[in-house]
Design a protein that fits this description.
This protein is 42% helix and 18% strand. It has 103 residues and is α/β, with parallel strands linked by helices. Strands 1-2-3-4-5 form a 5-stranded parallel sheet. Helix 1 (12-25) runs parallel beside helix 3 (45-51). It is globular, with a radius of gyration of 13 Å.
């Protein structure tokens, strides 16, 4: 599991570059961890569109609390990538939307 960079609040391009650089360094499966309450920045749906095209990224742990975004992720990528709840209070709604579990 790889957390979005924290402290410097990089741009969406910076997030994409960060994950892409890690993907180039390993063949291991990666779960992208979006936790804006800790990092100060949320991975946007457009960034996910580029990010989830990388074969190493097999899942997403979503802690944004943004159910509209999580629903869109599940609809668009849920067949190819596991979308996990990272917030206990949202486990049930995310399951109802088609989420794959919780971490």
């Amino acid at each position: 599991m790889i957390t979005t960079p924290y402290y410097n609040r990089c741009s969406q391009t910076g997030i994409l570059r960060y994950y892409s650089d890690i993907c180039r360094q390993t063949n291991l499966p990666i779960i992208a961890y979006d936790v804006p309450s800790r990092t100060g920045i949320e991975i946007k749906i457009d960034t996910y569109r580029d990010l989830l095209g990388q074969k190493q990224i097999v899942g997403v742990k979503e802690c944004s609390g943004n159910l509209a975004k999580i629903s869109a992720l599940i609809r668009e990528f849920g067949e190819d990538v596991c979308i996990y709840s990272g917030d206990d209070s949202l486990n049930l709604p995310i399951y109802a939307l088609g989420g794959h579990g919780c971490i």
